[in-house]
Amino acid sequence: xxxxxxxxxxxxxxxxxxTLFFLLFLIAPALDIFRFDLTIGNFIIFGQHWTxxxxxxxxxxxxxxxVSINILLMIFLPATLFISITMLLxxxxxRIYCGWLCPHFSVVExxxxxxxxxxxxxxxxxxxSAKPKSVISWLLVLCVxxxxxxxxxxSLLTYMLPPKEVLFNLLALQLSMSSSIxxxxxxxxxxxxxxxxxxxxCKYGCALGLFQSIIWMANSKAMVVSFDxxxxxxxxxxxxxxxxxxxxxxxxxxxKRAKFTCTQCGQCLNACDRVQQDNPDGALIRWVSNEPEQLxxxxxxxxxx
Length: 305
Fold this sequence. Notes:
12 helices, 305 residues, 3 domains, mainly alpha, three-stranded antiparallel beta sheet, 5 strands
């Protein structure tokens, strides 16, 4: 049975997936779901120490065949399975991880809304629709960004050191010099990213995002936001709401090449749904798949006369 993605409750599903994954990102080390402990030198996955049994082999007591089987079963097979499934999903849906799971993209959208509400613009590089209410508006954006940056920095530190020990030392103000430097530097870097360069990082700095985009672009039949050019005249009564809704500042009504970094978040679709809610024919943009003619056409021209 074919599922119509355009009729799914996008907002609620996406909010649920992003929230759960963001919480998982924060608490995974504390619950020993996944982390690399520098103090013992190996991964901990679901509470178990993930080693390859190389210690005894290095000491001359291990069996070469047993070690080879361990490496095959614990590294190559899981890695091959994970990469294969991931690449198939990316090939079909594009940067679905970015739009529906990525903790960084969740922060991007959160700060987007905060800046829009307090500074009347989504990024510092865009012109504001009106002057900010007061200096407090700027301070609020900065304080929220710094707070999220510190939480991120602390969370990353717990991926490398025992979480309980790090938390206790932080509360007791007894962090080691190296941990303190890491927290300060990481908080500063994340604050700069969140305030000034979060969109640029997603577009040009994230290797995982670019990897997804390249695979997605290679599939001419992958899921993509498509624009109904035959009804383009309806856009003349709309103030580019789909463009404004895009967290990545992409042109949703253009061809696929112009949306190389699209995260499939569906925000542009939601905006068009709202504008065309009284239109019996529905929205002008929607997700489509297996329709290469929708993707290879000339640049969309709008009837704005």
